[in-house]
Amino acid sequence: MENKNITVRKFTIPEEFLTEDSALQGVSLVQQPAHQSNFLLFNSQNIEQFKIQSEEKKRITGVAILPFMHIYRLDSVTNEPYYGYFEPADIERLVLGMFKHGYINNFSMHHNGVLLNDIKLFESFIVSDTRKDSLYDVPNGSWIITVQVESEATWNKIKEDGLKGFSIEAYLDSIEAFGRTKQCNITTEQVTATKLKKLIAEAELDSFKFSPSTKLEKWSKKCACKQCTELRSLGWNLPGILPDAEFKKQIGINEVK
Q1: Share of the chain residues as helix, strand and coil, in percent rounded to the nearest 5
Q2: Is residue 158 located within the same domain as residue 216?
Q3: Are 139 and 223 within one domain?
Q4: Is 248 helix (H, G, I), strand (E, B) or coil?
Q5: Structural domain includes residue 1
Q6: Entry pTM
Q7: Which residue range(s) make up the domain with 198?
Q8: pLDDT tens across 38-79, in order?
Q9: Looking at 121, 149, 176, which one is the last position of a domain?
């Protein structure tokens, strides 16, 4: 049963992995998949059967990522527990990055870091209104894959170890799930106003004058809400207008305490 007192966070893709590399770098076959959706072994003996009865096929179909399902995790910095979940748009970005950067055949067992050269991706698709799956009743945005096992030894190992599902290997961040942290009072309207102020200030930087009451806002590094994340990406303060570094220089300070 899920603990209602534990924070819920949305998994996000770190900025450095949006263009230069893939955050999703592999898939492991495991005994207890986080998404609790076991895969189906095609043509296996003593395990769940599928329609094709030829042992030659040696294929596995399963759910690799489910959207919105809460997954228990520990924060890598604070070691505090939280539940993380994926939104469909981020699942699509992860899968696209994996294909784009050539990680589609990175498969291992038990997250042991050893890539298996005899397991290849056979099929990959994201469930939508126009693409459903007869094996799994899962929500739109779910990522389902089929892999081809090319050796008898690995096929037997999968059965002997009781492997039951897929588990992704990815570099991920997380943010508070419901728009802002408890400490944050930044609104979407303030972010929009800051964007407009930035455009004006960039056009009139030389002539801009500060009033004595203007103060530099230091945003909490712990706050990872959508609004603060967007503000930090702009590099601008609020309610001030100039970028932090330029503001400090003009008012003659080196550090704000």
Answers
A1: 25, 25, 55
A2: no
A3: no
A4: helix
A5: no
A6: 0.64
A7: 188-251
A8: 887 765 444 444 433 345 688 999 999 999 888 888 877 778
A9: 176
